[in-house]
Amino acid sequence: MRTAYREHLDSFSHDLIIMCDIVHNTLRLASEALIDSELHAAEEAMSLREELDEVRNRCEERAVLLLALENPMAKDLRQVVSSIYIVEDLHRMGRLAQHVASAARRRHPENVVPAEYIGYFEELARLNDDMIRMLREILVTPDPDTALRMASEDDAVDDINHYLLSILTNREWEASVREAVETAQMTRYYERFADHCVSVAGRIIYLSTGLAPEAYMAKLSEEERDKEFESRMAELERQFRR
């Protein structure tokens, strides 16, 4: 029974990686559709919805099976519960990318956002792409320290989002109201995508350490303070002990 349980758990973990790859591909195609007004990329991104839903449903079935097979030990239970939340985050990320693709398809051959602001979305796409790549890395090899780095990427996305929104509310905005609304929607989709990446990273930290991200950061800070104290004491001993 325990061997079967471990096999199901490993299959669940593998499905998360498959799901992450689908989301990454959807994001890449959606960004291409938005930035280059590429209809084929938009349609291809939209076509991945069924595949994403299929893997999500399979993950849900695996979760029920894992919880029903036997009473999992604490670490295994933590992995199953964390994975259930990760599935929902990944599924939502895929849907957000498809919203971008849908807007690009709807407005083709026109651009969704004014041409002078495309550069901001190129950077948003790059940052989100970096984050989903990092996410795959920690799904394959869980590493809480790598997961913590996700927050700095998210801060950069937030900065662009806030800046674009400040432009949209400026009286000197020269584009149409429709373009203002859709530009706000697009930057919001990328911002939310990044937030879900951070959420998954937090689950990985909990899975690896049993601690919430804030508690893990506090632990690292305490360990760093202890190291600094030990270093100072060693230096004092070196200088004055005879």
TrEMBL record:
Homodimer. The gene is phoU. Pfam families: PhoU. Plays a role in the regulation of phosphate uptake. Residues 18-102, 122-203 form the PhoU domain. InterPro entries: PhoU, PhoU-like_sf, PhoU_dom. Its main location: cytoplasm. One of its GO terms (biological process) is negative regulation of phosphate metabolic process. GO terms for cellular component: cytoplasm. It is found in: Cytoplasm. This is Phosphate-specific transport system accessory protein PhoU. PANTHER family: PHOSPHATE-SPECIFIC TRANSPORT SYSTEM ACCESSORY PROTEIN PHOU. Keywords: Cytoplasm, Phosphate transport, Transport. SUPFAM superfamilies: PhoU-like. Belongs to the PhoU family.
